[in-house]
Amino acid sequence: MPDLSRDVVIVGAGVTGLTAARRLRRAGLSVLVLEARDRVGGRLWTNSIDGQLYEIGGQWVSPDQTALIETLDELGLDTYSRYREGESVYIGADGVTHRYVGATFPASESTQQEFDRLVALMDELTAEVDPASPWEHPNAAEYDRISFRQWLSEQTDDEETIENIALFIADAMLTKPAHSFSLLQALLMAASAGSFSHLVDADFILDKRVVGGLQQVPLRLAAELDDDVVLGAAVDTIEWTDDSVRIVSSSAQLTVTARAAIVAVAPNLQAVIAYEPPLPRLRHQALQHQSLGLVIKVHATYPTPFWRSDGLSGTAFSPYQLVHEVYDNTNHGETQGTLVGFVSDEKADGVFSLDADERKAEVLASLAAYLGPQALEPTVYYESDWAAEEWTRGAYASSFDLGGLTRYGALQLEPVGPIRFGSSDVAGHGYQHVDGGIRVGWRLADEIIDDLQQHTTPHQGALT
């Protein structure tokens, strides 16, 4: 079994690990990136399904994601705007389909007023929260002990308002029921995007896409690293002392000795690695209080974007539908039309109990409720099921249970000896987005550069 030597070894060839590797290399340090999958990109994956190109994972770029935008510019990647012309669709609790324009969904006047009031209240609370350290808010302990759903119920008795406010945090972002995470976790989600209003505004948060797919970011980053990215290299063990690590990958039949390590995978995957000696007890506890949500990303392609000729933008949402949100996801330059929709948390639980044909029928019926019977007959249909993917096991990012963010939030950012941990799951700005993953990669690389520059010379045999 080959025993390699580098300054830094990185576990995970997602955007965080590759961004960190690139920054470390540019600082003159040698690196090796180990990836369990047979591809780079982690939760970014652009793939052809039955001849149709789909963004299986993350895909959108919003104006506040300056780290991602900077990286796209550096890599020479172009973007294009999501199609949004025409009317949007909302289905209320009564099952009636409403077409509308503008930012305000068509509900009763009292519901609209309550919705606007709670959005303003959420924006006010969000402005007080630093996404890099939400546990430092003066009321953090109080906010972290009440579920988001309970807090909403204490603010209003308008159920339609509650369901719609919850949708933007619970269904659309954390992909967990609103009773399962805290108000503080919800405020972190909103603060990471700049405001709760940004999460409500699809034209902001889902602004642009990358021509050819967002996975080009990790693909191009990996190309800069040449042979220092090893695929099919699941890490079994990390042996560590105060100033060195030895990583074993039996699947790749190699070991790597390094001065520092970055474990650039989601918290739920950190726990599948054996550490010798074991991680400190509170780190073990923290990992048991974090989990990913559950979502099915549904792709449906049609001969034409038929909804456009009907005066619809393809944007639709409802907390009462199986598919809680739908968007026109037609690729740049294509004449056929593609819709993307999402089924999350407890609704996903329900349809996963059905066989594939039954599930497809239920999902397409929900799309048809928004956009008409033509939605029932796609030429290509695909479900992104990240929970079933061995090296992901959920979506889109991990979040804490009640009380966990204040108890363990700061701890997750601390190194253990020469090992640092990070991914978009622990980002402040850009939390659970590619932008956050890039920011975390920069931070971890800079911390290691500062640390190693204060100590001994690079490893013998390092590629500098």
From TrEMBL:
Protein known as: FAD-dependent oxidoreductase
Organism encoding this protein: Naasia lichenicola
A GO MF label: oxidoreductase activity
Alphabetic keyword roster: Oxidoreductase
Domain Amine oxidase: 16-449
Pfam families in UniProt: Amino_oxidase
Binding-site list for FAD: 16, 35-36, 235
Cofactor needs: FAD
Binding annotation for substrate: 342
Residues making up the signal peptide according to the UniProt record: none
Family classification: Belongs to the flavin monoamine oxidase family.
InterPro entries xrefs: Amino_oxidase (IPR002937), FAD/NAD-bd_sf (IPR036188), Flavin_amine_oxidase (IPR001613), Flavin_MAO (IPR050703)
